Amino acid sequence: MDAGVFEHWVKRALLDVEQALEAWVPPGAPAGLGEAMRYAVLGAGKRLRPLLVMAAAEAVGGEREAALRSACAVELIHAYSLAHDDMPCMDNDVLRRGKPTLHVQYGEAQAMLAGDAMQALAFDVLTPDTGVAPALQARLCRLLARASGYDGMAGGQAIDLASVGKPLDETQLRDMHRRKTGVLLQASVLMGAACGDIREVAWQALSDYGAAIGLAFQVVDDILDVTQDSEVLGKTAGKDQDSNKPTYVSVLGLEPARAYAHQLRDQAHKALADSGLADTAWLSLLADKVVERDN
User: Fold this and answer.
1) DSSP bridge partners of 95
2) Which residue in 50, 53, 278, 294 is a FRET match for 192, CA 20 to 30 A apart?
3) What is the DSSP code string of the chain?
4) Are 107 and 161 in contact, with CB atoms under 8 Å apart?
5) What does the alpha-carbon distance between residue 212 and residue 121 come to, in Å, rounded to a whole number?
6) 72: buried, middle or exposed (CB in 10 Å: 19+, 13-18, 0-12)?
7) Residue percentage of the chain with pLDDT more than 90
8) What pLDDT is attached to residue 235?
9) Is the separation of the CB atoms in 34 and 25 below 8 Å?
10) pTM (2 decimals)?
């Protein structure tokens, strides 16, 4: 696959997602709330989760309207989680996506409310009056809710906060990151897949693919936290080490962590090969992008 063709697809998909978010995130929400929401979600970030949705939907011949709404919904959930995670009561960070974090820019109360509103908006986006069948709406909402809640992202963040200064073995660390980061990435793939009609073997293969790159993403994040500076990352470098948090680098070491990330990418590629789907090129290249990124 020519790299230029892939980059063209990425730019087109990102433009579609950005235009949809621009339309669906209301500037006129009361008391400056809309402005804070738009600051948090528009015009920044890697948009990996929306790209996974769109790539999986294309791989299964899925409905484009449902896929675009799913892509925006998962990015809204991601943006809300970052807004809350950055607050002083949690990770207490001041830099996100190369600019001041939401609570630094708008105050803690507004950041909390903007996060709440983006979470609610995600499910509003998934349930339009027309254009997406009610059964598919319900399935997409269920996938996103489960990935976001106690058994997914919120549960992983709770474990993360409770683990500061405590030793975790590799199994415990994997469980924390599977929940905190991996499950939402996996759900992005499955939401895209749900927009089409596929066999169970392909569904399971895409689930395995999503699980592998979800964990790989966090392993690479841990590596970048100690190998890149804040300007490149767009967020505070060395924060996990300074906060005495367990990471893949602290548990495994730097080079074994790198090797593990490549092992997970190989698992993702194998899952795609096992899916029986005819065209998984974008998903394959996104797996490479997860592991080879520098921010």
Assistant:
1) 100
2) 294
3) --HHHHHHHHHHHHHHHHHHHHHHS-TT-GGGHHHHHHHHHSS-S--HHHHHHHHHHHHTT--HHHHHHHHHHHHHHHHHHHHHHTSTTTT--SEETTEE-HHHHH-HHHHHHHHHHHHHHHHHHT--SSSS-HHHHHHHHHHHHHHHSTTTHHHHHHHHHHTTTS---HHHHHHHHIIIIIHHHHHHHHHHHHTS---HHHHHHHHHHHHHHHHHHHHHHHHHHHHS-HHHHSS-TTHHHHTT---HHHHH-HHHHHHHHHHHHHHHHHHHHHT--S--HHHHHHHHHHHH---
4) no
5) 28
6) buried
7) 82
8) 61
9) yes
10) 0.94
- What's the chain's Rg over C-alpha atoms? 18
Beta bridge partners of 96: 99
Q: What is the pLDDT of residues 264-295, one digit of tens each?
A: 999 999 999 999 999 999 999 999 999 999 87
Quote the distance between the C-alpha of residue 7 and its chain's center. Answer: 19
Measured CA to CA, the distance from residue 31 to residue 103 in angstroms comes to: 15
Torsional class of 168: left (φ above 0), alpha (ψ -120 to 50), beta (otherwise): beta
> What is the reported pLDDT for 231?
67
Sole residue written with tokens 């005819």: 278
Cβ–Cβ under 8 Å, residues 67 and 47: no
Residue 294 sits at φ, ψ, to 5 deg, of -120, 10
Q: Which residues pair with 100 in a beta bridge?
A: 95
Cα gap 198→202, rounded to integer Å: 6
Give the DSSP letter string of 199-217: -HHHHHHHHHHHHHHHHHH
Residue 35: CB atoms within 10 Å: 17
